[in-house]
Amino acid sequence: MFNIFKNKAKEEKNKLEKFFNPSSVAVVGATANLGKVGNTIAKNLLELGYSGKVFLVNPKHDELFDRKCYKSLEEIEEAVDLAIVAIPADFALEAVKKSSEKVKNFVIVSAGFSETGMEGKRKEDELRAIAEEKNLNILGPNCLGFINPKIKLNASFAGGMSEAGNVAFVSQSGALVVALMDVAKKENIKFSNLVSVGNEMQMNEIALIEYFGEDENVDVIGLYLEGIKEGEKFVEVARRVSAKKPIVVLKAGKTDRAQKAISSHTGALAGSDAIMNEAFSKAGVVRAENLENFFDLIEVISKSSAVKNENVIVVTNAGGPGVLTTDAFENKKIKLAEIENKTKEKLREFLPSESSVENPIDLLGDADEVRYSKTLEVCNDTEAGSILCLLTPQDQTPVEKIADEIIKFKRNTDKNVLVAFIGGEKIEKALKKLQESGIPNVPFPDRAVLALEKYYKWGKARESLFAVSETKKNQARVKKVEEIIFKAKNDGRTALFFSEAAEIMGLYGVNTVDFANVKDGMPGGLNFGFPMVAKVDSDKTLHKTDKEGLILGIKNEQELDEALGRLRKNFPNENLIIQPMQDIKMELIVGIKHDASFGPVVVYGLGGIYTEIFKQVNFLISPMNAEEIQKHLLASNIGFLFQSTRGQKPMDVSEMAEILHSVMELAREAESVLEFDINPLLVYNNKKAVAVDVKIII
Predict the structure, then answer these.
(1) Final residue of a structural domain among 209, 232, 252
(2) 438 and 321: one domain?
(3) What is d(CA 255, CA 274) in angstroms, rounded to the nearest whole number?
(4) Do 123 and 34 belong to one domain?
(5) pLDDT tens digits, residue range 585-617?
(6) Which strand (E) or helix (H) includes residue 24?
(7) What single DSSP character describes residue 307?
(8) Number of domains in the chain
(9) Judging by beta carbons within 10 Å of its beta carbon (0-12, 13-18, 19+), is residue 132 exposed, middle or buried?
(10) What would the pLDDT profile of 394-453 be if each residue is shown by its tens digit?
């Protein structure tokens, strides 16, 4: 299976090689008019150092920029590896259609396609059809273009040229590409490529992750995303690439104000951003908290090797920043390293008696370059994988000399070395030296710790990313479920009766509570005694507690008659059922949420009447096997249930994993199920779990 994926990745690499590394480029819509997109693109190609052939195309000119101007792409006799199209949408469509036999790679910066409405969408659909028929690669439309600094190719209408390096940046926002280029100059971040994807008609972030994943010049891939259309494929591809190199994602749109009211508990719990978080976790990508954190992560990862271990030593010349840094390690996987006694003794040999040789190591406010140098040398013999150097520019601080010593130390160590120089004008020259030497600077210590933490967690996670789970549909089971749902739909119902839901649960090996339908005023087929529960079983009353459709603790025949009478009065002509009362140890919820990007997602967490109050839920994105689900359970916010606590015997984690796996199979197999939840699922530490209420909305 892995070899199949590997071959696909290589195919993607070969397919786009001429696109990103063309020997010749044509600009359709080139013009001498200042301020026009075609003018900027032409100048970028002609003036920024690109050594390939450049062809200018504009039917209104015979000559532009002292060189021949062609009437059309077809008129160019030589090979054209890449065409950049910067003319109105109708003409852009025609230009691609006419030249599609000659040119196979296009950047369409032109707007006026699907982003403008139905007519624009029609044009984009036609463009897509041409691309598929003629086997074209198209970036855009409605995009900024791309930049390949290694060959000095600026195939965009952004000004300037970034330095060539190891960061590939892919953005659903052209403006953010321009902003990142500007920040990069200051921080000395260097790029292999910068790509604006525009409408993503064909070439999207998935294809580009695949391509840059195979590019040996790329050490880290940065993504700015506003949405993901092909969620399952994104996870599959990103997971494979993340096992080799970090992918850092800045995802916009964390809130979902437009979420519609949904009738199941699961729908109310499953916010799209929480699912996005789980998808990123499954894919092994590093999610940035915000734009600031994104820049920090790119800075640290592009200039550092994978973090060797969780231990960090902090060296500072100021107590306050040291304390703030200590706080930043709270609830992190990385931690302040324990300083061994022999290391402390070496430090005491040259540090003032007032210095702290604990961690953070405080060199005091009068620390010079010698004190920093000797301290770093001693720390090099420790087991810590990373060293964070803090500095505040006090009057007597030789900032540049200290920077020089940090640079020297970095050349002779395999540890990750980061700096957090806190200041402004006084540290500018030193920062420039550090940046030119490839040492990442994150301006505040808490931000440095967060970036290092996320990088470390990627390194730990990548070990398991090559594992791929596969599931095949059980066709006999699929057919049976479809028959049950078909009958309910024919009856005009939007939800299954409990009897039908219990039958489906049985097909998937999930234990449900015993029950009896109430017919002709009498319970029939009883296999249980008192105490009992009576409830309405109807697609019109899904939240029974809220609507008083649930009566608990029925102790005898008289109470049962009274309860059923009350339910019949409140819910005339509705189906009623009775069930045996269950001992309650712990109530959980298990559900299915259909996500627009990632398909059916399994939801689980604390259940019962407090489900939507506490919202202690977790998400599983298929495919996963029971072993993977078990690991997820133990790491989740209900993981404590499956561990011995204060003499309490743990719940059976393997049983719970099997239940969740069964629900995941149901989610993949039963496409007619719109929403699903078991609430509560009663779990015990001395007997099998049982589903008490199963809601299947169709």
Answers:
(1) 252
(2) yes
(3) 10
(4) yes
(5) 889 999 998 888 898 999 999 887 666 666 678
(6) strand 24-28
(7) P
(8) 2
(9) exposed
(10) 999 999 999 999 999 999 999 999 999 999 999 999 999 999 999 999 999 999 999 999
